[in-house]
Design brief:
Length: about 1000
Amino acid sequence: MAGGFSRRDFIKLGTFAGITVTLARLPLAHAIEVHSGLGASGWMDKEGQARYRWDAIRKVTGQKVFARDFRAMNLPGWPKQQAHAFFVKATQADKVFEGVALERLSKDLQPDRVLFHEDMERDGITVPQPADLGADFYGQYFLTPKGTTPPMLGHPVALLVYSDFDKFEAAKRQLRFDTEFVLYGKTTGPKPPPNFGAARYVRIAGADPKGEPEYSPLQDAVIWGSLDGATAVWPPADSKGMFVPQSVMHKHRGGGTGNRDPKQVADETYEPMQRGMAAAAAIAQDIEAARQNPEKIVLERHGYSPSIDPSAMEPDNGNAWYDASTKTLHLLVAAQSPYEVARVAAFMVKDNKRFPVEHIEILTGTTVGYGSKDHSIFPFYVVAACFYGDGLPVRLANDRYEQFQMGIKRHSFDMDVSITADRKTGKFEIMKGQYTCNGGGRANFSFSVAQVGATAAQSIYYFPKSDLASIALSSRAVEAGSMRGYGTIQTMTMTELMVDELAEELNLDAIELRRRNALLPNYPNTQGAVQLGEPRLVEMLDKAIKHPLWVDKDQAKAKFDAANPGKKYGVGFAQVQKDYGTGADTSALVLEFDASGNITMRHCLQEIGTGATTAQQVMIQDILGQAPETVEFGVTEFAQLPLVSNWSPYTTTQDQQDKLAENPYWVPFLLPAMSASNSVYFIGFGTRQAANFLLEHSLWPAAKAIWSDGPGGGQIAAGQVSLADLRAYPGGLGGAGMSPIPFAELARKAHEMGLITGVALHCFSRWEWARGSFDIPGVGERTLPVDALAVRYGDKASEALKQRMTTGGYDYLKRSKIVYPPVQRNNAGVTTYTPAACLAELNVNTFTGEVEVMRLHSLIDPGKIVVPALVSGQQQGGLAMGIGHALMEELPLYEDGPGNGTWNFNRYTLPRAKNVAVWNQTVEYLAPLSDTSPPKGMAEVVMIPIVSAIGNAVAHAVGKRFYELPITAEKIKEALA
C-alpha cells in the first residue's frame, strides 16, 4: 500500500462520497491500538487481577506516542522535507478585516505562501457541512473573508506557509503579539453567527410520583424555542396561529428533528408544545402564590460558571500531505474520534476539482482531550492547508498561546434559578431555571450542551414540578464545545449551592434536607424518565451524615478558629449524579477462541488515556476465566458484520426507523464516539454480551460434556447444575462443586463438538437496549439485547454449518425481529447515572482571601468495579479538575480573554499538588448491590461535587455565599471587607 505501510497496518473504513478511506495508528511498533498483536505478558496476576494497565510497559518505555511527536521524515513513504504553517488570527471582532501587513516581516522571513479566504474559495476548499451535524456546525469559513467582520476573537484570517523551519519559527515568534499585522477597517460591532437554539423541559407530576404525570417531555414533548437576539421566544400558550421553532429545525446530538419542512414541523410539534407552555404558566403561578404564602420558601439566585480551558497535555496539531500523482490525501491527526475525522474529511474534499481526492489515508496517535478534540475543526484546517504545500506535507501545530486562542473551551453559563419548598417539611415542590450558555463564535455542540445542562440541573432531587429552560447563544468569544462535564458541572453546582442555603434558611442539617428530597427508586427525573436501577442516593447520604468530618464540623471549627487567628475553618458537602452515555450508544466486536484455547478479540473501542482497553479485557477474564491473548482495538471495519446506517439516531422519525429496520443489515448508528463516559457500561455492554454468548452456547455445553464423562453420566449426573451455577476462576470455569476445567480443555471440547466458537455482534442503546430475535443453529430462536449477530462454528462442525460461514468467515444471522427503542426515548434526556458525593475541609485566610483545602472525602457508587486502580485514577484526577473550577480557573470571554493571543499558563492558573490535599484524600466506593450489578461510567462525575462542596465549605468558614465561580481570593476579600 502507498505510504510504506502494509495492508495489515491499515484498516478500511469504507467509502464516503466516492472516496475510499483507510485508518491506521502511528507506524510500526507504535500501532498498538489498532493492530496490537500479543499483549504484554505479566499485566494480569495469577488471581486474574490487573497488576497494571495492559499497555503500561509500552507507555513507560516511550512507545506511547502522540501525533505531535511526528514529522514527515518519520512517516514511511512521505516526503522527507516538511513544510510548516501558522495562522494569523483576529484579535478584534468588531471591525472589518481588510488584509495583513506583510511588510512588518523582514524580507528574509517572508512566507512562501500567504493564503486568504478568497484563495480557498477559488479552489473549492470550504468548511465541511455534514448534514447530520447541522448547518455551520464547524462554522461558515476557514478564514475570515476580506471586507467582513471576524465571527469571533481568535478566528484565523490568513495562513502563512513556509518550507524552511527556521524562517517559520522566527516569523511566528515575531508576529505572536503583533497587534498591527492584521489590518482592520470600519467598526461594525460584533458579527457572531446566529444563536444556536433554545429548549425547555416542563413537568408536572400526577397524584403520585410513580404515576402518570400531567405533563412531561418523555410523555408529551420537549418545548423548542426560537431566539430574538438573546431572548428565547416560546410557543404561545393559546392555540391560534403556527409556531415554527428554529431550534427543532436543526440536527444535533440529543434532540431536534432534522432539516425538514417548517409546516410539517409546526403541525407535528405545536399542539404538545402548546400544552407544555400552559403547564409552564401554571408553574409560574404556583411560584408566585408560594411567595405570598408564609408556609413556603422561594429561594431565587443568579449564578455564573466561567469559561475554562481543557488544558489537555497535547495541543491541537496535525500533518497532511496531498499526493497529486495518486490523488491521495495523507492525514496525521490528534482526535478523539478518528473515524469521524475521516468521514467528514471525505465529504469536505469530495467535489474538489483542483485537488481531486480519490483516497484518504489517515494516521492517528494516542491523545487525551477532555472533549477538546471531540468534533474539533482543527483536523479540517490541516486538510485545507496541505493543498498549499507545493507537494510537501504541511504541519499545523498550536503552541500554548495558540491553543488558548482558538482551542475549544468549556461553556460559561449564566443561571437564574428558583427553588420552592415547604417550610415545615423541607420538601421541595418546584424548580424553575433558565440556563444560558455562551457558545462563542462556532456552533459545535453548544445547543446540546445547553440541553444536557438543563436536564441535569435537578441534581439528586425529586421535584413534583419543574420548568427548566436552556439557551445556547453565539458570541464573539472563543468556541466552546463538548468539554468534560458537558454542561452539568455548571448547572448542578448551582443547585447544590442553593440547597445548602435553603438548609440554612430552614434551620435543617444540609444533608438531612437532601435526604428528604432525594430521588427514590422509580421516581422520574425532570424529563419524566426513570433511571436505571436503584439510585442509592439515600444510602450515600446516610453514610455522609455519619462521617466524622460532618459530625464534628462545628466543634472542629471552634477549635481551629481559636488556634489560628486570621483563618476560618469550614466543612462543606455536596452530592450529585451525572449521566453517562449519549443516547445513541453502540458497541461492536468479534470474540473467538481456537482449539488451543487462545482467545482473540477485535474491538471498536479506542484508548484515549482512561485505560478502557485494559478494562475490556478484564471483563472477558471475569466471565470466561481467561483474558484474550490477541487483541485489536480501534477497529472500524468488521467483515463479519456488513452493516449499514443512515447515521441519524437522533433525527430519524419513528416511521423512518421502522421502515429502515426492515433491512437486516441496518442499524441506527455504527460505531461509538469515545465520549460521555460511555466505555465501561455502554461499550463494555457489547463485550459482556459477547463473552456471555460464548459462555452459554459454547463453554457451558462443553463443560457439561466433560463433567458427564464417566460411568452413569459422570460427576454432574447426581446433581442439579445449571448455567447460572457456572463461575469463572483464573484460567477456566467451575461451579456447583464440579471439578474446575482449564479454559484450554473447554476450548478443545467445544471445537470437537462443533459448537459456536466465535461471535460478532453489534449493540445499540437509546437509553434502552435494542432487542433482536435470531434463529441460532443448534439452539433455536433467541431474543438478545443486540441488533446484529454473526457466529463461527468449531473445527469439527458439520459441513452444512461450515458452508454457512460466508460473511467474513462467519455465519451472519439475519434477525427475524428487531425492537429498537422508540425515538421518543430521546426526550428522556438520560436514564443512566452515577452518583458521587464529597466532603471538603478547608480554611480561609481572612487577610489574603486564600483558600487552603485540607482534607477531602468522597463517596461514589461505581457499580461493579472492573479495574480498581483505574477508578482511583479517575477519582484523583477529577478532584483536581473540580478544585481548579471552584477556586482558580477562569478565562475572560472577550477582548481581554484568550482570543487576544496573550494567554498561557503564566496567566491561567491550574491546581498543583499543594492545592488538592494530595495526601489527605480518602474515598469510599459503595459495594455493588449484587454480583450482576453493571459497572457505571464515572469519568466526569468525580469532578463535579467537589466544586459545590468547596463553595459550601467557604460559606461555613466565613458566612458568605458565592454563586459566581471561581471563588477567588479577591472575591473573598471583597466580600469580607
